[in-house]
Amino acid sequence: MLEVQESLVLDEFVEAFSQLRGTARWEGMSYLVGELLERPRPVILETGTCRKPGDWTGDGCATTVWNWIVERKNGMAVSVDIDATSCDIARRICPRVHVVCADSASFLRGFFPFAVDLLYLDSRDWGPEAQLESCMHQVAELSAIWERLPSGCLIASDDSHSKDLGKPALTRRLLSILGIEPVLDSYIVVWKKP
């Protein structure tokens, strides 16, 4: 019976986020939503927040997906972003997500008293002029909270353009050194902490 309920909720996701279908993020988001729906009360921690509602091909709007999951699963989502305007927008459109205006690496280094089910890394815009900064920032975020992530925690990174290009380029190499390979390798790369 539980599987039927989860399947119905997954069908609701497909309907609610139809504008996401056909984008580079569809495969990754579908995977993450399926995984989170299997968890009793998922805890989601996101870096970078929704700043352009409806921009599924550009920014991605993942915060709206986390808001949707929290509504259905009675879980918790926290989104941290350094930009106050982005935080205000996210608070308006995602009322179930606790939005924090702070530097993400500093925030993650601080005390976070919840067992995280998903760490979604999507801060620091990636682009030709900011490739290294974006990748280094993501590694700083992951290292700031790594020891406190529980076994089974999903770690996801947006904006993968190839194995060596995009936000997760250095994260991919770091986790590979630790013997952790992606469970999903798409535009959104997903790993699972052993």
What does this 3D model show about the protein?
The structure is a single chain. This protein is α/β, with parallel strands linked by helices and 194 residues long. It has a single domain (2-192), classed as Rossmann fold. The chain contains seven helices and nine strands; from the N terminus they run ααβαβαβαβαβββαββ. A seven-stranded mixed β-sheet has the order 3-2-1-4-5-9-8, sandwiched between helices. α3 links the parallel β1 and β2 (76-81). The protein is globular and about 40 Å long. The two termini are 29 Å apart.
CATH domain class name: Alpha Beta
Oligomer type: single chain
- In DSSP terms (H or I, runs of 4 or more residues), the helix count works out at 7
- The helix/strand series, from N terminus to C terminus, equals HHEHEHEHEHEEEHEE
Proportion of residues in β-strands? 15-25%
| Helix residue percentage | 40-55%
* Architecture (CATH level 2) name: 3-Layer(aba) Sandwich
Q: How do the strands line up in the largest sheet?
A: 3-2-1-4-5-9-8
CATH superfamily: Vaccinia Virus protein VP39
Poorly predicted spans: none
CATH topology: Rossmann fold
Main beta sheet, described? 7 strands, mixed
Number of domains: 1
Q: From the helix content, strand content and strand pairing, which structural class follows?
A: alpha/beta
Question: Mean pLDDT score, rounded?
Answer: 89
Distance between the termini: 29 Å
Kindly state the number of beta strands: 9
Question: Judging from the principal axes of the Cα atoms, what is the shape?
Answer: globular
